[in-house]
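Lab notebook, design round three. We kept the backbone fixed and only want residue identities now. Task for the bench partner: fill in a sequence for the structure below.
Input structure tokens:
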């Protein structure tokens, strides 16, 4: 029993030794991508800036990165994507502890305003199905009902 416990402990230590460098590398990569994406966005190069910000957020999800990504998508003219990203930021904000919410400063107010503005710009699609359409008909777009 003691040998099994020691082996399990050694396995856990080995796992942690290998995981820590990977996590640190992801953090460095995320920061580099964020800095690149932000610089590209500020220079008006949204086609390279927004994907870099998205990858930064994928590697290390942080509220500020998500807010910046939403801003980039809005400036890029991707209204629906920006609307969704601001919505994700606001949902994430609500889950943050009060001290982390305070660190967001005016972002939450800006996100709400941007989302409201973008909401009025969202393209709408209305489908009118003929009366003869079977009652179990499902309409899907890109696999989403």
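Proposed sequence:
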């Amino acid at each position: 029993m003691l040998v099994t416990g020691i082996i399990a402990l050694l396995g856990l230590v080995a796992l942690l030794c290998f995981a820590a460098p990977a996590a640190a590398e992801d953090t460095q990569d995320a920061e580099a991508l964020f800095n690149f994406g932000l610089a590209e966005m500020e220079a008006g190069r949204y086609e390279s800036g927004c994907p870099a910000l998205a990858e930064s957020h994928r590697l290390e999800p942080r509220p500020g990165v998500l807010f910046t990504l939403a801003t980039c998508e809005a400036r890029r003219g991707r209204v629906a994507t920006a609307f969704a990203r601001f919505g994700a930021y606001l949902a994430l904000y609500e889950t943050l502890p009060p001290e982390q919410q305070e660190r967001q400063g005016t972002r939450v107010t800006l996100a709400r305003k941007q989302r409201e503005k973008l909401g009025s710009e969202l393209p709408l699609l209305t489908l009118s199905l003929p009366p003869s359409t079977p009652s179990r008909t499902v309409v899907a777009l890109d696999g989403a009902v």
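Keep this in mind before ordering anything: Residues 83 and 119 are 7 Å apart (CA to CA).
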